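fold-stage: in
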Amino acid sequence: MSFPTKPFDITLPTNGGTSWALIGSSRSGKTTLLKYIYKTYYSKHISVMFSMNAQADIYKDMPKNVMVSDRFHPEILKECHQINAICGNKFPFWICTDDFVDKSIKNSPEITRMLTIYRNANMSSVQSFQGRTLMSAVGRNSCNYVAILKQNTPQEWESVIKEFLSMYLPPGMNMPQMISFCQEATRDYQFFMINALEGECYLTKLTRAQAGV
């Protein structure tokens, strides 16, 4: 079954912020991808990360200028927006959540604003979750870039296919065939990359060098 495949390489817009959603099961490669995205595209941004496992070994090589909190503080997002409202979007901000399982993020008006109107205030973000429903529907469908990594169950694959992938998968496939195709396609850390700004979806994978291996 043919499907577009190419190296992972994104050209960001030259103005404004961008938003990403990384959706995949535990140990699917989300945090490795998140770190590569940060180091490649956002390392010069003023950066804040929210993670319930901030002490985990996988974060040890994150630069010290990334402020990490194990609690979600929506007021930080609001203050970043207020700063740039006063300063003419002078400061690039990057806000990240990684496996933060809490309704406070899903239902936060500030998160929704960050994934929509705050992008116009030079604020970028990456939201990384084990399940798509841990993000609000408005938020996850407003992202510029969506990476779909391995999912745990056929049921979750069906939901992800219906919401994100059905329009891109080869025509003529029924749902069991689409699920089987996606399961096979995302073995060994390969993932679907949806670039909503370019209207494209392709399979890709970090190289060993990109992944820091």
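fold-stage: in (second)
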Amino acid sequence: MPTASGSVAVPRRALASTWIILANVAVYAVNMFTMQVVQTPQGNLKTSGLLFALGNFNFNQTILQGQVWRFITFQFLHNPHGLMHLGFNMAMLWMIAPVVEEKMRAARFVVFYLACGMAGPIMLMLLNRLGVLIDPGWTSQPLVGASAGVFGVLVAAAIVAPNEEIELIFPPIPMLLRQFVMIMIAVACAVVFGAGYQAQRNNAGGEAAHLGGAAVGYLLARRMLAPRVFNAPAQPR
């Protein structure tokens, strides 16, 4: 996880990304209260929660049954059995999103973020259709998390501030933002294309969603940020 050195000119409470983070945390907390313990032949099992069931993305319900709202709602849900998934995504948004949002402004940022998130399951479906990911049960497996949207924001941030210096917490090494983003994308590519046949075991499906968010993030950022970023006067070094 990186730490950034840049400052935020707009107060945090005025940023849409702050409210996105709060919404994710609130949804996680509410969903926890709807989780129940049920008895199975293998022993007690804790359910994933009502919001998780109603909002996760899976091919069968989202596409075959026309529950298209899941393209949006899955982005505000996280693994209900652990905080690491939520914590990592929200930390990334907290540290990286402001530099992008200040260039786009709040409304455009929200559209950008949700569009990148929607690209995640679309990429997952495409790669399964092409046979890159082979998992017989993928149509019913739930996909949740803000990661696809986060990857889109990361790519946009690397366009806005490629030379921003960040420092990884583990291992504690400094690097440029663009280098960090390239490493993250390379890892996702290695998982998806290097061992996609183990999609369920190694989270290749989740990494495929990351690639979808990154790809759409790049395309949208080039269009939405180009007039402000690429035509800006060069700063003296």
